[in-house]
């Protein structure tokens, strides 16, 4: 049921043009935009999603660059937590 709901398409306006994209894509775009404006909670959630995605990718196809990216993400999360 969840997979069906996030796959539904919604109309969005991007660069003055209307497009239909899956709800999941729209939600991620909104989250990314909020993080870019300095919303700390959105940034934390976005970094967590990126970290989980990279970890999943690393498990399926290990690479040395994924480890470096994961180290950077962990450091950013540590700094955000310390700043509370």
Task: Explain the overall architecture.
By secondary structure, the chain is of the alpha+beta class. It folds into two domains: 1-37, no CATH class; 40-84. The chain has four helices and two strands. A two-stranded antiparallel sheet has the order 1-2. It is globular, with a radius of gyration of 16 Å. The termini are far apart. The mean pLDDT is 87.
List keywords for this structure.
single chain, 84 residues, alpha+beta, 2 domains, two-stranded antiparallel ribbon, 4 helices, 2 strands
Task: Lay out the secondary structure.
Layout: H1 2-7, E1 9-14, E2 17-22, H2 23-36, H3 40-60, H4 64-82
Antiparallel strand pairs: 1-2
Short description:
The chain has four helices and two strands, in the order H-E-E-H-H-H. The chain is α+β, with helices and mostly antiparallel strands and 84 residues long. It has two domains: 37 residues, no CATH class; 45 residues.
């Amino acid at each position: 049921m969840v997979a069906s709901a996030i796959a539904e398409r919604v109309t969005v306006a991007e660069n003055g043009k209307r497009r239909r994209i899956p709800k999941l894509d729209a939600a991620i775009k909104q989250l990314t935009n909020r993080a870019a404006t300095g919303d700390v909670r959105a940034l934390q959630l976005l970094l967590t999603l990126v970290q989980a995605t990279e970890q999943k990718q690393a498990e399926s196809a290990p690479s040395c660059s994924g480890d470096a990216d994961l180290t950077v993400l962990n450091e950013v999360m540590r700094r955000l937590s310390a700043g509370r």
